[in-house]
Write a structure and sequence with these properties.
Its EC number is 6.3.2.-. This is UDP-N-acetylmuramyl-tripeptide synthetase. It is an enzyme of class 6 (ligase). Its cofactor is Mg(2+). The relative contact order is 0.08. The protein is α/β, with parallel strands linked by helices and about 500 residues long. It has 16 helices and 26 strands. It starts with a strand and ends with a helix. The strands form five sheets. The protein has an eleven-stranded mixed sheet with strand order 11-10-9-12-8-13-14-15-16-17-18, sandwiched between helices. Helix 15 (about 455-465) crosses helix 16. The chain folds into three domains: about 5-95, Udp-n-acetylmuramoylalanyl-d-glutamate--2,6- Diaminopimelate Ligase, Chain: A, domain 1, CATH 3.40.1390.10; about 100-345, UDP-N-acetylmuramoyl-L-alanine:D-glutamate ligase (3-Layer(aba) Sandwich); about 355-510, Protein-Tyrosine Phosphatase, Chain A (Alpha-Beta Complex). It is about 35% helix and about 25% strand. Bound molecules: ligand UAG and adenosine-5'-triphosphate.
C-alpha cells in the first residue's frame, strides 16, 4: 500500500485541510502518529503533545514526509504538509491508504453514555450468527478483525485513533469480514478519530452528564454536541426515546436523517403521547436474565419483522434496551430474528454484568459500572427483585481521572445499597482513602452500613464472606482489569472475577 505525493496533496486540498503544501516527490509506504512505529518511507502525523525528541527519533528512523499543524515550530528537515487539523488529515489519508475499507463493510456505530460496550458485543454476536462468523468488532475491551485469536487485540481507547481504526478495518476486510460494529465515543468526534467516516446505522443509547473535565469536555453542551455528531454521519439512526435530553436529540436527528431512516425504541408504558416504532416490555426477569416482548408499531416498523418474545441471558433490565437497540440496528444490515435470539442467549460481555451464582453466599456481579447513571441502574435492577435481602457493593473511584464522578458514586450507593465496602480502584497518584472520603461524603443515609478496606482483594473477600444465600454482592468499577494503576504503574491485580471465584471456592468448595 502506498500514497503518492500527488494523492496526499489532492486529498488534503480536496477536503479543505491543506494550508501549505510540501515539496515532496516520492510516495509513502507507511503511516504513523507515534515516533516509535516509524520505519523508512513513513508519513508522520504530528498531533497532541508531540515533543521535539519524538521528531528527532522519527527522522532518524526514516520518516520521509510530515503532516504538521501550523503552530508546530520545530525544524522538520523533511517535506512538511501544513494543515489546520492534523487528526482530520490523518483520518482522510488513512482511509485512502487502506483503500476505504469501510465501503466493504456494513458498518454500525454505537454511542451513548452507558451501554456502548454491552450493545456492541450483542450486535457483534448477532451479526456473527447471521453471517457464520463474518463480523468484526471495535470496542473498549477488544478489537476483533477475524475469528482467529491472532486477530483479537486488546483495546486502549473506546474508539481507536483513525489510523489504527482503518488498519483494523482493512485487516477485517482481508479476513473476509462483511459486517462491523464499533463504539463511537464523544472523544472520537472531538478528536476527529472518525472524521469523514459514514455509518450505515448509528445507534444512540442515552446521554447523561459524564466525561466533563480537563482533557475531555468543557461542559455538558459540548459533550452533547459531540455525541450528536453521529447523526450527521449515519444513513439511519436507532434512537432511544427514553433517553434524557430526548427533545434536542430527536430535533437534531430529524435535521440530519430522513424520517424513514429514524427508528425510535422505548420501554412500553401507558403514555399514549409517547410514540416509538419499537417498544419492549419485561415478561419475566430474575437475577440471571430475562424474557422480554418486542412490539412494532406502524408500517415502517412492521418491515423489521421482529415482533415476538426473546430470552436474554444477561442480567440487568437496562440490557433489554441495549438488546433491542442491537436488534434494530443489525436488522437494518440484514440480520434475522433467529440469529438474534441465538445471540441473546450466548452473548457474554467481558466485565459487564458477569454473574456468579453461589450456594450460600448469594449472587455476585462483576460489573464495570463507575458513575452515577450506571451504578444507580445496576442497584435499581437488583433492588427491584423482591427476593433479594441484603445488597452489598464494593466500590472505589480512580485517581486523577473523572474526579467529578465521586459524589455521584456516593449518591447511588446512598440511595439503594444496604452495605458498602469503600475500597481502592486505580488510585494513581492520589491517596485512595482521600478518594473514599469524597465518595463517603455523599453517603448520609444512616441505614447504609459503610466499611473501609483499601485492599480491594480483602474488601471483596469480606463482602462475600458476610453475604447470605438471598443476598447480592456487586463488585463495581474494574470489570475484568488485571491491574491497578498506581503511581503511573500498572500494578498486577488478579481481577475481580477471579478473586470472587476463588473466595467462593474457599468458602463453599467445588459443589
Ligand atoms: C485526551 C486524549 O484524547 N488523549 C489521547 C492523545 O494523547 P496525547 O495527544 O496527549 O498523547 P501523548 O501521549 O501526549 O503524545 C503526543 C503525541 O506524541 C506521540 N508520541 C508519544 C510518545 C512517543 O514516544 N513518541 C510519540 O511520537 C503520540 O503518538 C501522540 O500522537 O493521544 C493518545 C495516543 O493515541 C491517546 O492515548 C490519548 O488518550 C488518552 C489515553 C485518554 O485517556 N483519552 C480519553 C479521554 C478518551 O479518548 N476516552 C474515550 C472514551 C470516552 C467514553 O468512554 O465515552 C475513548 O474513545 O477512549
Ligand atoms: N443502557 C444502560 N443504561 C444504564 N446503565 C447501563 C446501560 N447499559 C449498561 N449499563 C451499566 O453500565 C456499565 C457499563 O456498560 P458498558 O461498558 O456497556 O457501557 P459503555 O458505554 O461502554 O461504558 P464506558 O463509556 O464507561 O466504557 C454496565 O456494566 C452496566 O452496569
Amino acid at each position: 500500500m502506498t500514497l503518492t505525493a500527488e494523492q496526499i496533496t489532492y486529498l488534503l486540498a480536496d477536503n479543505g485541510l491543506l494550508k501549505t503544501g510540501a515539496d515532496f516527490k516520492g510516495e509513502v509506504e507507511h503511516l504513523a502518529y507515534n515516533s516509535q512505529s516509524v520505519r523508512p518511507k513513513t508519513l508522520l502525523f504530528i498531533k497532541g503533545n508531540f515533543k521535539a525528541a519524538y521528531l528527532e527519533e522519527a527522522l532518524q528512523k526514516g520518516a520521509c514526509a510530515i503532516v504538521a499543524p501550523m503552530d508546530f515550530h520545530h525544524e522538520t528537515t523533511v517535506p512538511t504538509f501544513r494543515v489546520d487539523d492534523v487528526a482530520a488529515a490523518m483520518s482522510i489519508l488513512s482511509m485512502a491508504f487502506y483503500d476505504y475499507p469501510q465501503n466493504q463493510l456494513a458498518l454500525i456505530g454505537i454511542t451513548g453514555t452507558k451501554g456502548k460496550t454491552s450493545t456492541a458485543y450483542m450486535a457483534y454476536e448477532m451479526m456473527n450468527e447471521a453471517t457464520q462468523g463474518k463480523a468484526a468488532l471495535s470496542s473498549t475491551v477488544q478489537v476483533i478483525t477475524g475469528p482467529n485469536p491472532a486477530n483479537h487485540y486488546r483495546a486502549h481507547l473506546t474508539t481507536p485513533e483513525s489510523l489504527d481504526l482503518f488498519r483494523w478495518m482493512h485487516e477485517a476486510v482481508n479476513n473476509g469480514m462483511t459486517h462491523m460494529v464499533m463504539e463511537v465515543s464523544s472523544q472520537a468526534y472531538k478528536k476527529e478519530r472518525v472524521y469523514g467516516l459514514h455509518f450505515n446505522v448509528g445507534v444512540f443509547l442515552n446521554i447523561s452528564p459524564d466525561h466533563i473535565g480537563p482533557n475531555e469536555h468543557p461542559d455538558f453542551a459540548d459533550y452533547l454536541a459531540c455525541k450528536m455528531m453521529l447523526f450527521d454521519h449515519a444513513e439511519q439512526i436507532v434512537l432511544n426515546a427514553d433517553s434524557d435530553h430526548f427533545a434536542p436529540l430527536i430535533e437534531r436527528a430529524r435535521e440530519d436523517v430522513p424520517a424513514d431512516g429514524i427508528w425510535l425504541y422505548a420501554r412500553k408504558t401507558d403514555d399514549l403521547e409517547r410514540s416509538a416504532e419499537v417498544t419492549y416490555e419485561t415478561i419475566k426477569e430474575d437475577l440471571q436474565g430475562s424474557t422480554f416482548r418486542l412490539d412494532e408499531h406502524g408500517q415502517q416498523a412492521e418491515q423489521l419483522g421482529l415482533t415476538g418474545e426473546y430470552t436474554l441471558d444477561m442480567p440487568g433490565d437496562f440490557n433489554q434496551g441495549n438488546a433491542v437497540a442491537a436488534m434494530i440496528a443489525t436488522r437494518l444490515v440484514g440480520t434475522d430474528a433467529k440469529a438474534m435470539q441465538k445471540a441473546l442467549t450466548t452473548v457474554k460481555v467481558p466485565g459487564r454484568m458477569q454473574e456468579i451464582t453461589t450456594k450460600r453466599h448469594g449472587t455476585i456481579y462483576v460489573d464495570y459500572a463507575h458513575n452515577y447513571a450506571s451504578i444507580a441502574a445496576l442497584l435499581h435492577f437488583v433492588k427491584a427483585n423482591e427476593h433479594v435481602q441484603k445488597l452489598t457493593i464494593v466500590v472505589g473511584a480512580p485517581g486523577n481521572k473523572g474526579v467529578s464522578r465521586r459524589p455521584g458514586i456516593g449518591k447511588a450507593v446512598n440511595e439503594q445499597s444496604d452495605v458498602v465496602y469503600l475500597t481502592s480502584d486505580d488510585p494513581q497518584f492520589e491517596d485512595p482513602n482521600a478518594i473514599a472520603d469524597e465518595i463517603q461524603a455523599a453517603i448520609t443515609n444512616p441505614k447504609v452500613v459503610v466499611h473501609r478496606q483499601m485492599n480491594r482483594t480483602q474488601a471483596i473477600t469480606e463482602a462475600i464472606k458476610h453475604s447470605g444465600p438471598a443476598d447480592v454482592v456487586v463488585l463495581a468499577g474494574k470489570g475484568m482489569d488485571e491491574y491497578q494503576k498506581t503511581n503511573g504503574v500498572d500494578v498486577p491485580y488478579e481481577n475481580d472475577w477471579a478473586i470472587a471465584k476463588r473466595v467462593v471456592h474457599s468458602l463453599e468448595g467445588d459443589k
